[in-house]
């Protein structure tokens, strides 16, 4: 399983790739759309890490 820092690195690499593809092919190209979806999923994965950590940190004692 990937850790949050690995996901952040992947997000940055994929963001750069999305920018490169958009420059070369235009925003309406299918390759750009695919890369955007990959980036969205990575961002969602990072947010799940973040949410789990916040949920864990905000837990109240049971007793």
Could you please describe the fold and organization of this structure?
The chain has 63 residues and is mostly helical. The chain has one domain (4-57): Helix-loop-helix DNA-binding domain (MYOD Basic-Helix-Loop-Helix Domain, subunit B, Irregular), CATH 4.10.280.10. The protein contains two helices and no strands. The chain has helices spanning 4-25, 30-57. The longest helix has 28 residues, at 30-57. The termini are far apart. It comes from Paenibacillus illinoisensis. GO terms for molecular function: protein dimerization activity. This is Spo0E family sporulation regulatory protein-aspartic acid phosphatase.
Care to give the gist of this entry?
With 63 residues, this protein is mainly α.
């Amino acid at each position: 399983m990937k850790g949050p820092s690995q996901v952040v690195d992947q997000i940055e690499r994929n963001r750069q790739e999305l920018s490169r593809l958009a420059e070369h092919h235009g925003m309406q190209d299918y390759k750009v759309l695919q890369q955007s979806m990959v980036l969205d999923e990575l961002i969602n994965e990072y947010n799940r890490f973040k949410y789990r950590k916040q949920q864990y940190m905000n837990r109240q004692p049971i007793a």
